[in-house]
């Protein structure tokens, strides 16, 4: 358990990520459409999101892209800080701009963790001089993606805005990369019957030079569909909120 945070943490969606966060921090309140999912978390179980918003001042979304669309506006309008795991919920540029504008107006902070990838810091620095191209090449187990293939097969090639429609649970990171890079990035998705890990390769070209970042993610112990790193990322982010010293970028 990290130090007890001064802020009251609320979590929407009591699945794998939420349970791991609750092991690391004291949580004030939780909400899940399936109430029984909240049972083993030591926190007040809310009947709806409005109750949770009123009780908490830092709200973690760990539910679904639709939950971001449904709940983010009311959370941000009340000036509450929000950590968004289902970044795919921000795929629509108009919606995302609305949320970001609301945050600026109401003094709320929005946190988008790195999740299952690395390289966000590099892209931010590189963007200062200008980015030419950013590509995400993701390889996942074919069954997890819903494909019956005999060998590694390219099942999608296109822009992130289209990729997230086709794989709403699998390419959250492509939307995050698009937001950071300020462009609808290129995405390739490969289905592979022989891999257990989620492999993300991020290829960046810009005035700074070129970078290739490759992450071979182990599945998280409790839910093989979620990369372990994606669980660890929000835990680090929350633990560092009050840090005086900032490392990287
Ligand atoms: N950014 C990243 O790198 C990254 C990585 C992994 C997962 N994710 C996303 O984070 C989210 C949580 O992941 P997880 O592994 O904990 O999932 P999970 O399936 O283990 O848990 C999700 C929980 O949310 C609940 N839920 C769904 N819709 C809801 C709603 N509208 N309101 C309240 N509760 C709702 C479900 O009942 C479930 O208990 C998913 O959307 C997933 O795609 C993001």
Structural commentary:
This protein has nine helices and eleven strands. It is of the alpha/beta class and 249 residues long. It has two domains: 9-112 and 231-239, NAD(P)-binding Rossmann-like Domain (Rossmann fold, 3-Layer(aba) Sandwich), CATH 3.40.50; 120-217, Dihydrodipicolinate Reductase, domain 2 (2-Layer Sandwich). The protein has a six-stranded parallel beta sheet, with helices on one face. The chain has a five-stranded mixed beta sheet with strand order 8-9-7-10-11. Helix 1 packs parallel to helix 9, helix 3 runs parallel beside helix 4 and helix 7 (160-166) runs antiparallel to helix 8 (172-181). The protein starts with 8 loop residues before the first strand and ends in a 10-residue tail after the last helix. The site of nicotinamide-adenine-dinucleotide (NAD) has 28 residues, from helix 1, helix 3 and helix 8.
């Amino acid at each position: 358990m990290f130090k007890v945070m001064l802020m009251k943490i609320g979590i929407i969606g009591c699945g794998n990520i939420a349970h791991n966060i609750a092991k690391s921090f004291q949580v004030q309140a939780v909400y899940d459409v399936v109430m029984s999912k909240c049972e083993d978390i030591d926190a007040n179980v809310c009947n709806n999101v409005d109750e949770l918003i009123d009780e908490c001042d830092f709200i973690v979304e760990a539910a679904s892209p639709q939950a971001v669309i449904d709940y983010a506006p009311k959370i941000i309008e009340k000036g509450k800080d929000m950590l968004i795991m289902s970044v795919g919920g921000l795929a629509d540029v108009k919606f995302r701009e609305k949320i970001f504008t609301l945050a600026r107006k109401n003094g709320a902070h929005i946190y988008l963790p790195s999740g299952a990838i690395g390289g966000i810091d590099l892209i931010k620095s590189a963007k200062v001089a200008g980015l030419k191209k950013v590509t995400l090449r993701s390889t996942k187990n074919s069954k997890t993606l819903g494909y019956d293939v005999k060998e590694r097969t390219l099942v999608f090639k296109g822009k992130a805005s289209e990729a997230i429609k086709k794989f709403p649970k699998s390419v959250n990171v492509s939307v995050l990369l698009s937001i950071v890079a300020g462009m609808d990035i290129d995405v390739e998705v490969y289905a592979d019957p022989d891999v257990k890990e989620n492999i993300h390769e991020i290829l960046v070209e810009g005035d700074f030079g070129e970078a290739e970042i490759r992450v071979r993610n182990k599945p998280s112990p409790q839910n093989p569909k979620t990369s372990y790193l994606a669980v660890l990322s929000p835990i680090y982010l929350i633990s560092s909120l009050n840090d005086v010293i900032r490392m990287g970028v």
